[in-house]
Each structure stands twice: as structure tokens, then as C-alpha cells.
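Assess this one:
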Amino acid sequence: MTHAINPLDGRYFEKTRALSPFFSEQALMKYRVMMEAEYFIALSLSGKVVLRKFTPDEIKKVRNLYEKFDDASYEEIKKGEAVTNHDVKAVEYFLKERLSKTSLTDSIEWLHFAITSEDTNNIAYALILSDSLGKVIIPSILEIKSELDNLAKKYKDLPMLARTHGQPASPTTFGKEMKVFSERLEKYSNILKNIRIDTKLNGATGNFNAHNAAYPNIDWPEFSAKFIESFNKNRKQKLALNLFTTQIECHDSYINIFDTLKHINTILIGLNQDMWRYISDGWVGQKTKAGEVGSSTMPHKINPIDFENSEGNLGLANALFEFYARKLPISRLQRDLSDSTVERSFGTAFGHTYLAYVSLLKGLSKINVNEIKIKEDLMMHPEVVTEAIQTILRREGIKMPYEQLKELSRGKEITLSDIHKFINTLDVSDKIKKELLKITPENYTGLASKLASK
């Protein structure tokens, strides 16, 4: 990997290798073999064509071609592609060559029966997206959510100065702010899980032309629907059949996935930036590790590099997802091939996404929340309780309470003592004064603790 151009295959390969079984060139060939093999078996078991019914042992032999797909299998296909200059035809010839040496030699012309290469490709990519989401990407999102939930629970009662427009604002709790991100991830991960990936199995221009010419009495849309549904057993991210296509499936469901991932990634960019600021303010510290340095010249540094790495990779992934949304739904007339090379880059977008998740999780594992510093900084801004005071005074019918508190506090440095002196000058009952005097920046957190606990 020392000569890799893409950092995902070089510098970061050990962190992103979990996606290699789905997005490598070898993986794509394996998924194509899987689709062709299962289609071959489905035709045999349908009982609707003259292709004989395969024995259980023969079916096992066919499935072994993708279940035991290895480097030698891949190299054989690539050699075939070098001759044919067509990667899917090379897959077909690979299957024919392997099965010609078995009892299935009499049936091999039924491989790739009546379908076009895009039937093979779109189902292969659907399976790739389904497996990578279900086995790697969504579990990683949920792992981040779990870490945030732990922080929300642990620090639900830790009062913290909020900032709106970068200025001191009504206090919150550290736990509640973590819960905000957790709940957003919950919402959009559920949306992501429920997106069905559309597929096609309807021939060269989407009309079952060849299928219908050979067997006009077969309900081919029904056959296709059952075939696609057969992939959904034990599959978290489901596939669906799109009957209305040209030569290619229109990729709209891909865009739903990419847009949702982009939204999740944007949420996490916000989390990275907030955590960066908490670290900058000293509210969150980072655990040290023996031997590590933070700067080549400044020995004291512990930089928030994991959150910065995550932010950068999320932005890069989102740039690709945005491009996919502009490019993939468009194809000239019934087909052009410009989507093919773009689809091969899916692993790059997913790779930068996953790398960002890994970096974010690493960053979260290294933080220490500095409760003392958070409380000290909160108490330096007693003016944040003026909202509570003017609101209670409104309740009591006091004239222009907002304006009175504005005159006391806006643009000024005041102390809690100054606020107490103001309260004692008010024309209200002693009971109300006691109520107001009890309000401090530490206890003025509303329902933040309860919200963080939900």
C-alpha cells in the first residue's frame, strides 16, 4: 500500500479495511458472481422454463462460486476482462468455465439469460450498499450514539454556560447538549435503515423484451419481484424491485441513502466543531498517551486532532454525496455509461465517512469533562439569570421588567451581588424576592436534566 494514490488505501487502510469486503474491485466481482449465480438458480427452481431443476448438490456448487470467491477467482475474471474488454461478460465466462467442469455443463447457456449487464450491476451494487450499511456504517453511527448517550446520562446534571451567537446565554447541562446530538442521530439512522434500495431485472431497455420473446406466458415482473425479495432474508437494509426503468435503474433510492448519510455527517460535523470549542475553552480535556506528541515544536500541546480529522473526512465524503445526487439520477435517453465510473467511487465516499466515524469515536474515548472549569466559567456570567428574573416579574405584573434588567446588565460586567441588590430594590413581596434570590447560574437550567435523561 506504500504506492497507493488514495489515502484510504494507503495511510488509512488499517482504519477503513472493514469496508474492503464491499467496495474493492474484487468485492464488486464477487457480488456480480453472486447475482448471476442466484439468478441461474432461480431460473432452475422456477419450473417455468425448460432449464432443468438443479439438485441440492448442484446448487451448492453454484453458490460456492461466490461463497468461496478468492484471489484466484478474481484474477481469472480480470484475465477474461482483458480479452473481452467487458467486466460483466468476463463474469459470465468465468461462471461458464467453472461450471463446464461439473454436472451443470448442459445448462451453462442459461447463465445471464435474457438480461443485460446493468441487471447484474445494479443488483450487485444494491447488495454492496445493503451489506456495507447494515454491517459497518449504521452500527458505527449507533456506536457514536451510544457514546453520546453515556455522556448525556453521566453529565445530565452538570450545569454549563450556553452560548448563542457566541455570547453567554441561559445555562444548559453538558449532558443535555450531548443528548441533542444523540437524538438527531437516532432520528436519521432510523430513516436510513428504512430506505429500500431499488433494483431492476427487466432487460436491455426495461421492458422484458428478451424474456417475453422467449417465454411470453410467464409473468416476468412477478418472477423478478420474487427474485429480488429472495435477497431480503436476514438482510437489514432491504432491496425492492423497480418495474419502471430504462436500461438502468434510475438510482433515486441511492440518492435517498446518500442524502441521509450526508445529513448524518453534517450533524456530526456540528458535534466535532462543538467538541473542538469545548476543548479550546478547557471545559473538556484529552487523555494523554505515552510517547505521543501534539506539536513538532510546542511540547505542551494536546491537539483535538481526532475531531479535526473527523470533520475533514465528513466534509470530503459529503462533497462526493452531493455530486452523486447531481449526477446519478440523469442518464441520456435509455442509457449512457457515465454512471459506471462514478459508482466505482462509492467506496471512497463510504471510506471517508467511516474513517470520520472511527476518528470521532477515538476522540470521544479520550475526553475528560472538566466539571470544575465548566462551573467556574458559568459562575463568571451571573447575568444569564436576568432572563429568569424578568420573566417572573412579568408574571407578577411588574411594569417593564425586561427593560429594567436590560439597563442593569446589557454590555456590562456585573456580579451576583449586583443582581441581588437590584432584587432588593424591587417593589414586590418578600416571598417573591426570596424566589428571585434563590436563582443562580448553577440552578437555572430548566428541564435540561430531565431532557438529558429521556
